[in-house]
Amino acid sequence: MPHSKPVNAAISITSRFENIELVERVVRDLMINAGLGEEAIQPVIRALWEGVANAIRHGNRGELDRRVEIEATVSPVLVRILITDQGNGFDVASVPDPTSAENLLKPSGRGIFIMRQLMDRVEFSRASGGGTTVVLERHLGTTERREVGS
């Protein structure tokens, strides 16, 4: 039976890409238990992969002694995920636009763009203990849900 109250999970992983699968399973299970279907789950999981991969690759620079902390809150109407790395932080405004002509053929640089297309809210901030926290939110099944790109 689906939960009507929000459910939470906190996960701490080492900076290994194979750990993203564990994070996906936990968040997917939370969403299924909240009564959400694949149509709602898929965009969130895609944005989650991008966010955690960026935390591992760019935030923690793949250093295995650094961790990525993920907090997920899921209800039938809202998914909120916080991803925090232990890196040196960055200025999101300095990230090149992946849709500009000079960047179209580059093999990377689309993660933030993809997250912004799939989620209603994507915000970056300096984490209290250092590093960067990204907030991903997606409204589900309410009139608050807006069209992608708006």
Tell me what you see in this structure.
- With 150 residues, this protein is of the alpha+beta class.
- It has a single domain (7-139), classed as Heat Shock Protein 90.
- The chain has helices at 20-33, 38-59, 111-118; strands spanning 7-14, 67-74, 78-84, 121-126, 132-139.
- Strands 1-2-3-5-4 form a five-stranded antiparallel sheet, covered by helices on one side.
- It is globular.
- It starts with 6 loop residues before the first strand and ends in an 11-residue tail after the last strand.
Largest sheet: 5 strands, antiparallel
Instruction: Estimate the mean pLDDT confidence.
Output: 88
Order of helices and strands: EHHEEHEE
Number of domains: 1
Please, how many helices? 3
List the strand order in the largest sheet.
1-2-3-5-4
Proportion of beta-strand residues: 15-25%
Helix content: 25-40%
**At the fourth CATH level, what is the homologous superfamily?**
Histidine kinase-like ATPase, C-terminal domain
Query: Rg, please?
Result: 15 Å
Determine the structural class based on helices, strands and strand pairing. alpha+beta
CATH class: Alpha Beta
Give me the count of strands: 5
The name CATH uses for the topology is Heat Shock Protein 90
Short description:
The chain has 150 residues and is an alpha+beta fold. The protein has helices spanning 20-33, 38-59, 111-118; strands spanning 7-14, 67-74, 78-84, 121-126, 132-139.
Secondary-structure blueprint of this entry?
Layout: E1 7-14, H1 20-33, H2 38-59, E2 67-74, E3 78-84, H3 111-118, E4 121-126, E5 132-139
Antiparallel strand pairs: 1-2, 2-3, 3-5, 4-5
